[in-house]
Design a protein that fits this description.
transcription; binds adenosine-5'-triphosphate; five-stranded parallel β-sheet; Rossmann fold; DNA-binding; phosphoprotein; Sigma-54 dependent DNA-binding response regulator; alpha/beta; Helicase, Ruva Protein, domain 3; 14% strand
């Protein structure tokens, strides 16, 4: 029995060799991958080798108790479904097993049909859980009608390469300016791959300090640092079987770059503060809007990590480089937001079309999307005119800004911040020049790129 395109991984924990053997034969007959353990220690060691989807655990394990093993198994592998089996079935033990997190309860002697039923139930549960996680991720991204249709040769080439990459498990590096759709395409890659029914998990590298990002990625144990009040699995574990999307990878500190490199090489990691090594089955897709070769040459990014990340490199064109798509994307967003507002989609006037084509779109598709959303709100008429757009777009092609000229402070700030960022080698360096925190700068940049500022 498969989850997505891979077999169910089942752990059998029983001290009786006969029962283990019977279960193995039965489960393998259903197409499951089976691991066996005779003791609680062996069960935990088997899970440490790699996660499982389902465990059959005998209530009596010689002198040890399956009931006590239950929470330890779940702490080790949060997605595990546990079915408790025993010859001594009483209502009370069943209730207690459920209370401790077992998914099901099976009295001995059992039949192959009962085992099949338990496996099928666990498979449906696992698929549902991962579909829900996917769906939530997609909704929170709120990508309106994400489209892979394009008339641009550069975008066409990028999507073609991505489709071929989806058939493999190789690491993919998505490159392109901010807002070009790297996140959207990472998700599309996941949906086209064999991992599509497992989670797609995003980690946004620059939003967190080194320690918090390490903990976000790999998890931590209680007491690992101030504020670590309980054991916490990281995003790597949340992405088990699926895809981990590392956004803005260039902003990662050297210490974390080393940890990530090891993870990519060995598919192994430790939760922060824990001596034990864990295994993961996760495909990594990374994205950057920076010139990573330059960062390598200047010693800010590890060359070995770059080679590990860009086994397949997909370069997304900026919106300026795909003028063929601009008006169709604009119309698509207009229709989307008009439908959401329950009004007929307005048309673009010829002057508006000209203006949209003349503007440089530094925030790319994201900026276009936000500009269309805003235009629909401020312009209730049936034809969208240039006045429905912010000054910077309406003024496309007008003379450059000068100090002392007729500009608002906000416009001057925006222009200055964008220019400093364009010339500084890193976000940190730009923040230093501007005399503000890197996190403040990061927020400002997001605001500008989203077309709000
Ligand atoms: N192919 C597409 N179809 C529809 N909308 C798109 C597409 N690509 C991008 N967008 C829009 O642009 C927004 C930004 O896309 P995305 O977050 O993927 O960009 P990014 O390159 O990852 O940006 P950043 O580097 O800032 O994270 C999306 O939320 C979506 O609204």
């Amino acid at each position: 029995m498969d989850i997505g395109e891979r077999p169910m991984r089942v752990l059998v924990v029983d001290d009786e060799r006969n029962i283990r053997h019977t279960l193995r034969v039965c489960l393998e007959g259903f197409g499951c991958e089976v691991r066996e353990a005779a003791t609680p220690e062996a069960a935990l060691a088997a899970l440490a080798q790699g996660p499982a989807d389902l465990a059959f655990v005998d209530l009596r394990l010689g002198t040890a108790s399956g009931m006590e093993l239950l929470p330890r198994l779940l702490a080790e592998s949060p997605h595990l479904d546990v079915v408790l089996i025993t010859a001594y079935a009483t209502f009370d033990t069943a209730v207690e097993a459920m209370r401790r997190g077992a998914r099901d309860y099976l009295p001995k002697p059992f039949t192959p049909a009962q085992i099949r039923h338990a496996v099928e139930k666990a498979r449906r549960h696992q698929e549902l859980a991962s579909q829900l996680e996917n769906l939530e991720g997609q909704l929170s991204q709120a990508v309106p009608e994400a489209t892979l249709e394009t008339a641009s040769p550069a975008m066409h080439a990028a999507i073609g390469l991505l489709t071929r990459a989806a058939a493999s498990d190789a690491a993919v590096l998505l490159r392109g300016e901010s807002g070009t759709g790297k996140g959207v395409l990472a998700r599309a890659l996941h949906s086209m791959s064999a991992r599509r029914r497992r989670p797609f998990v995003t980690v946004n590298c620059p939003t967190l300090s080194e320690q918090l990002l390490a903990s976000e990625l790999f998890g931590h144990v209680r007491g690992a640092f101030t504020g670590a009040v309980k054991d916490q699995p990281g995003r790597v574990e949340a992405a088990e079987g699926g895809t981990l999307f590392l956004d803005e990878i260039a902003e990662m500190s050297p210490g974390l770059q080393a940890q990530l490199l090891r993870f990519l090489q060995e598919k192994q990691f430790e939760r922060l503060g824990e001596g034990r090594t864990r295994k993961a089955d996760v495909r990594v897709v990374a994205a950057t809007n920076r010139d990573l070769e330059k960062d390598v040459a200047e010693g800010r990014f590890r060359e070995d990590l770059l080679y590990r990340l860009n086994v397949i490199e997909v370069k997304l064109p900026s919106l300026r480089e795909r003028p063929e798509d601009l008006l169709s994307l604009a119309r698509r967003f207009v229709s989307f937001f008009a439908r959401a507002a329950q009004r007929p989609p307005p048309e673009l006037s010829p002057a508006t079309e000209k203006m949209l084509l003349a503007y440089g779109w530094p925030g790319n598709v994201r900026e276009l999307r936000n500009a269309m959303e805003r235009a629909l709100i401020v312009w209730p008429a049936e034809v969208l005119e240039p006045q429905a757009f912010p000054d910077r777009i309406a003024a496309a092609g007008s003379p450059v800004m000068t100090l002392g000229g007729p500009h608002t402070l906000e416009d001057i700030e925006r222009e200055h911040v964008l220019r400093v960022m364009a010339s500084a080698p890193t976000l940190d360096e730009a923040a230093r020049v501007l005399g503000i925190d890197a996190s403040t700068l990061w927020r400002k940049r997001k605001k500008y790129e989203s077309g709000e500022g």
